[in-house]
Design brief:
- The protein has 101 residues and is mainly beta.
- It has one domain.
- Helices cover 0% and strands 42% of the residues.
- Strands 4-2-1-8 form a 4-stranded antiparallel β-sheet, with no helix packed on it. The protein has a 4-stranded antiparallel β-sheet with strand order 3-7-6-5, with no helix packed on it.
- The model has no long low-confidence stretch (mean pLDDT 83).
């Protein structure tokens, strides 16, 4: 059976425009600088988009899937380690982070 090809589908473009955000914990601890793509909320922190990690808890963390990441100063949960499309991603706890542009 021949494969059907749709020639009207445009190729997927790689994301080239990012907003660089500084991410803080609610307690005021400066956590990281992150290149965020389009969209409103910060739902996941991809490790390859982190430009600067001030605490070392995101880039140097090679935990297993399902492990929680805690703030060093207030001990509140910031994110959970997940695997999305074969990459390790930190899924963000929405109420715990503050973001400045």
């Amino acid at each position: 059976m021949p494969l059907l090809q749709n020639k009207n589908i445009p190729p997927v473009k790689k994301l080239t425009k990012y907003k660089i955000l500084t991410i803080y914990c609610k307690c005021g601890e400066k956590l990281l600088k992150y290149k965020k793509g389009p969209g409103r909320r910060l739902l996941k922190i991809h490790r390859d988009r982190i430009t600067e990690d001030f605490t070392g808890i995101f880039i140097n963390d090679y935990s297993e899937k399902g492990t929680d990441i805690y703030c060093r100063s207030c001990n509140e949960r910031i994110a959970t380690v997940q695997i999305v499309n074969g990459k390790y991603v930190n899924k963000v706890n929405q109420g715990q982070l503050g973001i400045t542009k």
